[in-house]
Amino acid sequence: MKIIRSKRKNKMGEIDYGIFYTVVLLLSIGVIMVYSASSYYAMFRSGDSMYYLKKQGIAALVGVVAMAFTMSMDYHKLKKYTAMIMIGCVPLLLVVFLFPSVNGAQRWIPLGPFGSLQPSELAKYVVVLFLARSLEVKGEGVKQFSTGILPYLGVSGFYAALVLSQKNLSIASVIMIVTFITLFAAGGKLKHLFGIVAPVMFAAAVAFTVLEPYRMKRLMSFTNPWNDPIGDGYQLIQSFYALGAGGVTGLGLGQSRQKTLYMPEPHNDFIFSIIGEELGLIGCICIITLFIIFIWRGISVAMKARDTYGTLLAIGITSVIAVQSLINIAVVTGSMPVTGVPLPFISYGGTALLINMTAVGILLNISRQIEGKEESKGN
């Protein structure tokens, strides 16, 4: 039986078109909304209203090519490159400290006319690749806390710590949450995950928030942003104004008022509020529905994957997108403290878009190799 499965490994069926079309729609909406949200800001800052559109458009095109490549490459080949990618990611996460900080954080490597590289975006998927490869080998050993849970928390914690040192608690949290989800999917015991890991992770998040003054201010402004309407509460208040002004049907594409220098960098983390202002509740529901479809189809691919490696890889990739979209929308709507997590496929950012599209290509390749596709294709 093992021999038969190994022979079929290179045979490809059709991709999951639910994932494909959902991502294409999100990408298209993202490019349009980046232009709509950034045009006024770009004109004010650089004299070119299409400045951010051009950069995001190029990133989108490169991302589509990357997705097409990984979609066609057997995902099992990633196993032999995982260690190399893990090692290569570490110096990238450290090199950022050689460059000046931006808005108080050191997260980017300047690339001249090509923009900048944000290594933390890569770190999320590096952890996913490691977990999928190692947990497949670990098997039932994941049920042991000292040898099956703790080592993985250590490796993920190492990358999360490097990201955290860049003053990026949000992405560090995403790494640890995705690790928790993957360990759960791999068969980790509930008493270990929910009795030990979850409380420790929560306590660590609280500690890192309380010990850093600017994070504590964000937490306080979340509880009542109007206590500091021109300081830490400003961005959230502007988000409320945007969402409130949009109503059910929105003011119309390109008609946002908050993007005219009221909302700081409206094309970045708070782009969802501009979508709410211009496209209304209907537009927001459409975006949320697309993410729900993506998550549903991603879980479906994971459940039908040909092997454990494919299952865990699909779970990890889907979790990264799911956790980030959930956090971003929660922040914009005032459901959790303000944190810098971009909305996947929609927020401005070439590194995030390129890496997310590459990961989606891997997910689509997994979907091409799920059980039964070759057989049905042969019939």
Automatic annotation (TrEMBL):
EC number: 2.4.99.28
UniProt protein name: Probable peptidoglycan glycosyltransferase FtsW
Catalytic reactions of this protein: [GlcNAc-(1->4)-Mur2Ac(oyl-L-Ala-gamma-D-Glu-L-Lys-D-Ala-D-Ala)](n)-di-trans,octa-cis-undecaprenyl diphosphate + beta-D-GlcNAc-(1->4)-Mur2Ac(oyl-L-Ala-gamma-D-Glu-L-Lys-D-Ala-D-Ala)-di-trans,octa-cis-undecaprenyl diphosphate = [GlcNAc-(1->4)-Mur2Ac(oyl-L-Ala-gamma-D-Glu-L-Lys-D-Ala-D-Ala)](n+1)-di-trans,octa-cis-undecaprenyl diphosphate + di-trans,octa-cis-undecaprenyl diphosphate + H(+)
Membrane topology: Multi-pass membrane protein
Organism: Clostridium chromiireducens
Major subcellular site: membrane
Entry superkingdom: Bacteria
Family statement drawn from the similarity comment of this UniProt entry: Belongs to the SEDS family. FtsW subfamily.
TM regions (residue ranges): 20-43, 49-69, 81-102, 145-163, 169-186, 193-211, 270-296, 308-333, 345-366
Pfam families according to UniProt: FTSW_RODA_SPOVE
Lineage: Bacteria, Bacillati, Bacillota, Clostridia, Eubacteriales
PANTHER family: CELL CYCLE PROTEIN, PEPTIDOGLYCAN GLYCOSYLTRANSFERASE FTSW-RELATED
NCBIfam families reported for this sequence: ftsW, spoVE
The protein's enzyme class: transferase
Record's function text: Peptidoglycan polymerase that is essential for cell division.
Known pathway: Cell wall biogenesis; peptidoglycan biosynthesis
Subcellular location(s) of the protein: Cell membrane
Cellular component terms (Gene Ontology): cell division site; plasma membrane
Example of a GO MF term: peptidoglycan glycosyltransferase activity
Keywords per UniProt: Cell cycle, Cell division, Cell membrane, Cell shape, Cell wall biogenesis/degradation, Glycosyltransferase, Membrane, Peptidoglycan synthesis, Transferase, Transmembrane, Transmembrane helix
